[in-house]
């Protein structure tokens, strides 16, 4: 028994250092691609409401307030799912929770296609949102804990870039399928990708950083050894770089209630206040506006197919947006990139609202919309890169989960507020309100934010 003690100590001190010194190869990129593909499917399921809300509103004869409640229903599920999944992921591991999340959103999407009325549709959207809410903090934790610090920000930003791609894919699918199968057929079709859970089960390893923090030291060693072997194979047998020391805080096993308490103690209270405020106001503005984009265009006088097409065109601006954000995260840092994308979102949301309200020429409306989505999806990339870096491994999923959950509360309020404000303030008032939300979020980051660029997760835990 005495003979194994040095090995255990070496494993505990070496997991982070062994992962950080690995070159980025197609093996880590494969793990990232699996997570990103699941992210893409989630984006399609959530974003589809932007394109079919007008059709559902017409079929069920919904008023603006009812349509806003329907659009918000999935965010209620996401609010609950994100908070629960974060704690479960820190207690039971990243991989099993990630797999369960995919089953929930697949089942929810399938049931949406068979909803007999708007009340049941809301219930099934809550179920779908619960699964999506579970997936976000866990996916972020897996990528942040496997990709080395020198590449982490860029890859977390690229991960979020699959969100606009999924949003655009949802729009394209709606454009071609809506006339053929209706909105019900689209929801049923979007349930099929849930079988991707088997790919996740086969290809994605458990996070060795989590295994170590949970006291499963030898399991962590086995997973890291497997990762090292796969990386060495990608390098055609070349020697791996030597292991260097990585500053780390002592791993501590904590209960679920203690994890929540730790979000507010030992110096993390300031970070938690910042992330909760950032997520709340950013998502309040974002979902309050984008969920209604298609329906607002229809209310301006555009027919359903044209409103879907123009919304797709506007969303294309998100692709260069997240690519630019991925570069800025490493070139400038997380904090300045976050402030810039939030203020850009505010400026162009206001300009888009003015163009829509004054019935400006289509080219002006599309131009303002492209710039708005450029900053919107840049903002998303920064949010998802920044948040998991602010917490240590033992509470990373919990911290990310509660931040996302608070953000979903903003998402829940946003579309409903738009439904209530629209009849009184018009499109100009709606987009001005969204712009104000982004300005508040930027101010919070500017005052309370800390910089995490280029630092290992372990050094950020001090």
General description of the model:
The protein has 462 residues and is mainly α. The chain is built from 17 helices and no strands. The longest helix has 53 residues. The two termini are 33 Å apart.
First-last Cα distance: 33 Å
- Helix and strand string, N-terminal first? HHHHHHHHHHHHHHHHH
Number of strands: 0
Q: Which structural category do the helix and sheet elements fall into? A: mainly alpha
Rg measurement, Å: 22 Å
Q: How does the SSE layout of this entry go?
A:
Layout: H1 5-20, H2 26-60, H3 64-92, H4 94-112, H5 118-146, H6 149-189, H7 197-203, H8 208-213, H9 217-234, H10 256-262, H11 269-290, H12 293-300, H13 304-315, H14 318-331, H15 334-357, H16 362-386, H17 396-448
Which structural traits does this protein have?
single chain; disordered N terminus; 462 residues; Growth Hormone, Chain: A; mainly alpha
Short note summarizing the structure:
This protein is an all-alpha fold and 462 residues long. It has helices at residues 5-20, 26-60, 64-92, 94-112, 118-146, 149-189, 197-203, 208-213, 217-234, 256-262, 269-290, 293-300, 304-315, 318-331, 334-357, 362-386, 396-448.
């Amino acid at each position: 028994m005495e003979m194994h003690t040095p090995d255990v100590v070496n494993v505990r001190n070496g997991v982070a250092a062994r992962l950080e010194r690995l070159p980025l190869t197609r093996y880590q990129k494969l793990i990232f691609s699996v997570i990103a593909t699941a992210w893409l499917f989630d984006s399609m399921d959530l974003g589809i409401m932007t394109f079919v809300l007008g059709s559902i509103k017409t079929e069920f004869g919904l008023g603006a307030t009812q349509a806003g409640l329907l659009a918000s229903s999935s965010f209620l599920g996401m609010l609950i799912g994100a908070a629960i999944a974060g704690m479960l992921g820190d207690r039971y591991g990243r991989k099993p929770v990630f797999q369960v999340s995919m089953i929930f959103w697949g089942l929810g999407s399938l049931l949406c296609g068979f909803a007999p009325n708007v009340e049941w549709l809301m219930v099934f959207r809550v179920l779908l949102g619960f699964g999506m809410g579970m997936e976000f903090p866990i996916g972020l934790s897996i990528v942040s804990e496997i990709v080395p610090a020198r590449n982490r920000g860029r890859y977390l930003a690229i991960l979020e870039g699959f969100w606009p791609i999924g949003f655009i894919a949802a729009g394209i699918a709606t454009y071609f399928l809506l006339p053929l199968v209706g909105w019900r057929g689209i929801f049923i079709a979007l349930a099929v990708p849930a079988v991707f859970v088997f790919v996740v089960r086969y290809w994605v390893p458990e996070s060795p950083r989590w295994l170590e923090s949970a006291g499963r030291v030898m399991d962590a060693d086995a997973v890291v050894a497997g990762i090292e072997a796969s990386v060495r194979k990608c390098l055609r047998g070349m020697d791996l770089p030597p292991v260097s020391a990585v500053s780390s805080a002592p791993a501590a096993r904590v209960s679920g209630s203690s994890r929540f308490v730790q979000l507010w103690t030992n110096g993390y209270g300031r970070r938690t206040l910042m992330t909760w405020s950032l997520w709340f106001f950013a998502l309040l503005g974002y979902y309050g506006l984008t969920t209604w984009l298609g329906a607002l265009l229809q209310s301006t006088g555009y027919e359903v197919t044209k409103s879907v097409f123009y919304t797709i065109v506007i969303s294309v601006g998100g692709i260069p947006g997240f690519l630019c954000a991925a570069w800025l995260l490493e070139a400038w840092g997380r904090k300045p990139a976050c402030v810039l994308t939030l203020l850009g979102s505010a400026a162009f949301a206001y300009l888009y609202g003015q163009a829509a309200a004054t019935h400006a020429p289509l080219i002006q409306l599309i131009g303002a919309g492209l710039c708005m989505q450029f900053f919107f999806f840049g903002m998303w990339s920064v949010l998802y890169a920044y948040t998991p870096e602010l917490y240590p491994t033992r509470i990373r999923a919990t911290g990310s989960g509660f931040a996302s959950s608070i953000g979903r509360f903003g998402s829940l309020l946003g579309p409903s507020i738009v439904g209530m404000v629209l009849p009184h303030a018009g499109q100009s008032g709606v987009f001005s309100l969204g712009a104000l939300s982004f300005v508040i979020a930027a101010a919070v980051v500017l005052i309370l934010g800390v910089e995490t660029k280029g630092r290992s997760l372990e050094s950020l835990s001090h």
